[in-house]
């Protein structure tokens, strides 16, 4: 069992009604539905943050390559040598 705490928060009535209906359909408690929704939301936020960091790294890499002369043919030849 996970640790829980009692808290008082304000929730929009339409969201609470929707959560109650979902809990009833699933046969679980309202608390379970709300906890699941919060966990999914935080997971989504974390995923967005990870994607944002990855895109920043890609942009940084592209900026470093800007102005450098890169010979694609040479890179491909060397890659083919490595594969052999």
Question: How would you portray this structure in words?
Answer:
There is one protein chain. This protein is 74% helix and 0% strand. It is an all-alpha fold and 84 residues long. It has one domain (13-83). The termini are far apart.
Summarize the SSE layout with pairings.
Blueprint: H1 13-26, H2 30-65, H3 72-83
Helix pairs in contact: 1-2
Mean pLDDT: 86
Order of helices and strands: HHH
Structural class: mainly alpha
**Contiguous helical run count:** 3
Helical proportion? over 70%
Q: Flag low-confidence runs.
A: none
Overall geometry comes to elongated
Task: Indicate the proportion of strand residues.
Answer: under 5%
The largest pleated sheet is described as:
none
Number of E-type strands: 0
- What value does the Rg take, in angstroms? 25 Å
Total domains, how many? 1
Amino- and carboxy-terminal Cα gap: 55 Å
Task: Name its key features.
74% helix, 3 helices
Kindly summarize this structure in a few lines:
The chain is mostly helical. It has helices at 13-26, 30-65, 72-83. The chain has one domain (13-83).
């Amino acid at each position: 069992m996970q640790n829980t705490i009692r808290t008082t928060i304000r929730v929009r009535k339409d969201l609470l009604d929707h959560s109650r209906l979902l809990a009833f359909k699933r046969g679980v408690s309202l608390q379970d539905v709300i906890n699941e929704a919060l966990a999914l939301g935080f997971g989504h936020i974390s995923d967005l943050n990870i994607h944002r960091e990855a895109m920043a790294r890609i942009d940084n890499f592209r900026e470093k390559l800007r102005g450098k002369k890169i010979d694609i043919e040479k890179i491909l030849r060397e890659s083919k040598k490595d594969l052999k």
